Each structure stands twice: as C-alpha cells, then as structure tokens.
Amino acid sequence: MAELTxxxxxxxxxxxxxxxxxxxxxxxxxCDVLGMEPLGSGERHDDLLMPAxxxxxxxxxREPRELDRIAVSIGPGGYTGLRIASAAANLIGFASGxxxxxxxxxxxxxxxxxGHGPLAVCLACKGDSAWVTRFDAQGEAVDGGALRTADDLxxxxxxxxxxDRFLPASFREAAERAGRPxxxxxxxxxxxxxxxxxxxxxxxxxxxxxxxxxxEAVTRWRELHGGG
Length: 228
What we know:
12 strands, alpha/beta, Nucleotidyltransferase, domain 5, five-stranded mixed β-sheet, 228 residues
C-alpha cells in the first residue's frame, strides 16, 4: 500500500550530501519523490529542521496530517543531529498520527551506491575503529553493523570501502593493501525516503538514535568519576 512519507536526514552533516527533508509516496520497493528541501545554512539543526519541513509542505500544498510514515536517519552520526532528528520525527508523529521508521544511516549511504558491488560502509570513525556495516552486491545488508578495527575488516577483492575524512589511517592502509578504492559517503533525504519501506514502523516516541559508540561527554564523566 502506498504511503505518504516524510524523510529526515541530518545524521552526518560534515560528510557528503546536504542535510534536508524529502516528501514522497513509498511502497514495497517503490518511491515517488514529490519534493526535497535542504535545511539551509547555519550550525543549529534545531533552528533549521522544522522550518525546512514547513517550507516543504507549503511548497507542495500538503498537510502534515496527511502523513502515513516518517522516516528518520538514525545513525551512527553526529550526536546533536541524531538527537534533533529523532526528537522532531517523534514530535511530528505525535501531532500527525504518522508512524515512525528508523533507517540506519549506512542504508542511506548504500542506497545511493546501489549496483556498485559489495560495500563496507564505515561510520562513527574515531581512533582506530569505525562502525562498519556490510552490504552485498544487491544492496542487502550482510550484517547489522558493529564497531570494528582494521584487523577485523578483511576486505574482499571486489568490496568498496566507504568512509569520510575521519576514516582511520589503519582502514586506509587496509584498503590500499587490498587494492580497493575509498569512496566518500553521501547522505540524502531522498535515499532515506527510498529506504523507508524496508523497516518496520513503530509508534511515535519509540525511535531512538543509533550512536555506534559512547558519547565523549559520557566517557570523560566515567574517567573523572569511575563506575558504570
């Protein structure tokens, strides 16, 4: 059944693509994009996201109460962007009655590279590790993603490594040894929209970010105070 879906992508604003929102009609492996709206310039997504949603609906002559689904890119990614996007999706869901779909951000990246072969999508890079999600040549996830080091990677001969400028040097060296190129990830609201049908929708208030690793503030608190 076709559903009017709003997609929100603000997960990795420092990587390729542009944070924004998209509205479309989605179904089982179908996606008709009605329109997209970038967040615009500025550093605070909490000031930019809802105005972008409002502009999109006004431009297309639609109303939030028409929504069936809200797809939000849940990470891993930037902590602030993920929190704001998830909170906004839940808020719009409560107001409109729409169900919420959490789309792992690696799927957003993989959707834009469909048909390019097996992928190892690396997100939340820090130190010598990254959150790695692997996809086969058909664009289906091989696993649900995990925090891995370069020693765990073992790139296949035909596998593409996807990583931004924060990709650890050890991962770059592993790709060089395997003779595999490194491709910059691109995050788009359109790709998030196109992935929405793959994931089960839930009631508003139940979607939370996928951080991939502990927040720096929490780590420092543990170092200062100890304990769990």
